[in-house]
Amino acid sequence: MGGRVVVGALIRDPDDRIFVQQRSEDRRLFPGCWDIVGGAVEDGESLLAALRREIREETGWELDRVLTRLPPRTWEADGHRHTEYDYVVEVRGDLAAPRLEWDKHPRYTWLGPDGISILHADAERTGSSFIVDSVSAAHRWLAATPERSCRAAEQPLPHEPRP
């Protein structure tokens, strides 16, 4: 895969809104920007195991179902190339009360297709539309897939070892 590998969770709620959280102003990377749940894949960890861990660590929720994996994309920060695998997912837990890492993410919201405009200011400030594009891709997939033939999270994805 090369470089650093990261996963992102585009968590949907029953109204097809996507969960985003705002990074604190003192974060080294992308301070004050809205972000999706996610992070680095640890050595020996599968993508799905990393996704499960990141969701639990950042929200307290449990991965319930992987709806789809979006095409991988790359980005650079701190002189490192990152390959990111984003998944549209459903979770178990109280969606009105995420257990955020408040020092890292002081705010959160749920965005429908008409709400992503709050992400545009970050895109203009950073010069990157990565999060706007990811959230938009999730909404496009949700709108185009009304039957939601979903893959249970317990089943490994193609080309991925079981955790």
How is this structure best described in words?
- It is a single chain.
- The chain is α+β, with helices and mostly antiparallel strands.
- The chain has one domain (4-152): Nucleoside Triphosphate Pyrophosphohydrolase (Alpha-Beta Complex), CATH 3.90.79.10.
- It has three helices and nine strands; from the N terminus they run ββββαββββααβ.
- The chain has helices at 47-59, 120-126, 130-144, and strands at 4-11, 18-22, 34-35, 37-40, 62-69, 73-77, 80-92, 107-111, 151-152.
- The strands form two sheets. Strands 1, 4, 5, 6, 7 and 9 form a six-stranded mixed sheet that branches. Strands 3-2-8 form a three-stranded antiparallel sheet.
- Mean pLDDT is 87; it is low at 149-163.
Keywords summarizing the entry:
single chain; 163 residues; alpha+beta; Nucleoside Triphosphate Pyrophosphohydrolase; 6-stranded mixed β-sheet; 21% helix; globular; disordered C terminus
Short recap of the structure:
Helix content is 21%, strand content 32%. The protein has 163 residues and is α+β, with helices and mostly antiparallel strands. Strand 6 and strand 7 form a beta hairpin.
Q: Roughly how much helix do the residues carry, as a percent range?
A: 10-25%
CATH topology: Nucleoside Triphosphate Pyrophosphohydrolase
Tell me which CATH architecture applies here: Alpha-Beta Complex
Task: List the secondary-structure elements in sequence, H or E.
Answer: EEEEHEEEEHHE
CATH class wording:
Alpha Beta
C-alpha-based Rg, rounded: 15 Å
